[in-house]
């Protein structure tokens, strides 16, 4: 918009008109428009512009009340402009805090899932070390088992505050995506599910996060694609797991229930040094593509 880009030249032009035309022309009201824009940018600019308007008004004054009304109108315009600036800053800060809270909550959820996955692996390590010690009598195996038990204890104590009843259930993985697909179909979304490449065992944390990413993406499809066709693809590559969720409808929101939508996806991908791409598809529709390295 021209006024937003060049408020000073426009104000100067209005003031020039105010000087040139008869005093009866209400040029002051036109000058208040660029004054508002300048006051939004910087308070000092607004005050300087108001002073210039008052100066011209004094030169063209026909009645003693005119400068007073000019001061009142200018002060009101500046006050409204600065209030709008503060209002936008407060709204931006609120959005930032909501984003940070959603990200923090998602990190806690990831930590709980990783605790379960790592705890399972350490438990197996302890059992195997104890079995080896029982068979061979090797004191080093006993030491490994003892270290594993201490590690488990520290993990439980450190993450105890993160536990809740819901966390006691086994964490879902990619093998459980059938339920997500069926839920989407039950909600009226014609969705397909494809697995590419040779499936391979995944670390528990990676498996759970991959499931959550697909779950969040499909939830966005249900809520925002308006029943458009969708597709879920899980591709087992040589070095990384690739997840693709595409639809032919609208765009997702930044926050949803459960994993907080795109915020949750970003946090989970970042936890495994992966990459995430979200955006419109060529033509129409939307795509979520995540890549999670196996060795993150």
UniProtKB/TrEMBL annotation:
GO CC, one annotated term: membrane
Domain Signal transduction histidine kinase subgroup 3 dimerisation and phosphoacceptor: residue ranges: 106-165
Residues annotated as domain Histidine kinase/HSP90-like ATPase: 209-295
Enzyme Commission identifier(s): 2.7.13.3
Pfam families: HATPase_c, HisKA_3
InterPro entries, alphabetized: HATPase_C_sf, HATPase_dom, Sensor_HK_TwoCompSys, Sig_transdc_His_kin_sub3_dim/P
GO molecular function (one): protein dimerization activity
TM regions (residue ranges): 68-85
Keyword vocabulary terms for this entry: ATP-binding, Kinase, Membrane, Nucleotide-binding, Phosphoprotein, Transferase, Transmembrane, Transmembrane helix, Two-component regulatory system
Catalyzed chemical reaction(s): ATP + protein L-histidine = ADP + protein N-phospho-L-histidine
Coiled-coil residues: none
Name under which the protein is recorded: histidine kinase
The organism of origin for this protein: Solirubrobacter ginsenosidimutans
Lineage, uppermost ranks: Bacteria, Bacillati, Actinomycetota, Thermoleophilia, Solirubrobacterales
